[in-house]
UniProtKB/TrEMBL annotation:
Name recorded for this polypeptide: Uncharacterized protein
Comp. bias intervals (Polar residues): 1-12
Residue ranges, annotated region (Disordered): 1-21, 85-104, 125-165, 372-413
Classification of source organism: Eukaryota, Fungi, Fungi incertae sedis, Mucoromycota, Mucoromycotina
Main subcellular localisation: nucleus
Organism: Mortierella isabellina
Bias (Acidic residues): 375-387, 396-413
One Pfam family hit: FYRC
Keyword Nucleus: yes
Amino acid sequence: MTNENTVSQDPATSADEQEITEHQYRKLKRKLKEYMEVNCLAGYSLRAQVLQINKSISDNLSRSMYKIKTLRFERNILLDKLQSVESTHSDSHAEGTSEEEGTAAYSDLEVSSIASLKASFKASRKASPYHSKSTSAGTKRKRRNSASTTVISAPPKRNRNPNVKVTTRRIQPVPRDENGHPVMPLQIGVLTVQDLGHVVWDRPGFHTERYIWPVGYTITRSYPSMIDANNNTTVRATILDDGNNQPLFRIECEDCPNDPIIANSATGAWTAMVKRANEVRGILRTNSASGPDYYGLGHATIASLVQELEGADKCQDYVWQQFEAMQDRAAKGVMKACAKKRGNLEKLGSVKYRMVQKAGSAVPHADAIAMDNESVQDELVDEDADMEPPSSLAAGEEEDTDELDENDDETVW
């Protein structure tokens, strides 16, 4: 009997144990599922927070970079204006003005110029790039007729700073002939160098601490037309010598060859060009332009070629620059980015992707202009400026190009 009872209880006991095991299993499974759901939600929340922080940091960086570029551009304009005061004083002195008269004239001019500089500087800082009033930096139009447009502007600036900072700037390779001379025409960024010209070293007005103004230097580029709001035109910019102590800067457009712009400074000539291109489109925007950047002389590669010209080493005030050739991989990335910018310039009127659509194609942004000629290679390295802000490249090439992109001292517009 005892054995039978024991045997008869075994199946029940086994069933109870099985029941308890299934219940515990289901309970454990349910808890595990809830735990996983909670963890997933927490993970998604954490990932979203990280992405939000990353986006915020990226936005702050972009704003800071844009502000730096704007301030750099304003600095160049202020230097041009200050130089106009200094050059006016030196010119009046050279014409035989007595020391007392010269001092009085300079003092009056200095007071009025400083006041106007402060006002223009405040206005440029407060004004939005898209809603600022049309003004000209350091230039006034003297007359405009069917033959030519001549503007009075400050001569090439002379900082007279003996402590000019010299940094090694990277340059892209250029094709050369059997004698080692660059083969013309030469495509550099959005500019095409037609002629490097020759150095006039015995007249101090033909160079500054930062730039040499070679006589005969000629570049061409695509730029918004001054007479057709819907199209671009080919612009030819040349440096001329009329026998005086400083060069003349001439800009001629393919669609209006009989109406060139002539000024005694690169900034004066290009400011007039930008203003007229903006006017025909009904755009209210700052019209100031960095002349050396538009001429391409701030681009590291072009600056190195000009420095190679005969007589460049005899320029007394010019501070000799240091250059080094970039690696092949970086050079390919730079040239690829420049080709993309040229395409944007021809199609959109700007090397950047943003445009202001007003009565046709937009004229390059004044701040963008100041960056444009900066060499894609130096944009983050030194304080030059060449092409417009870094373009996106292939994953392997983007890092090299961006590293070089910020400082061509020129502008790609």
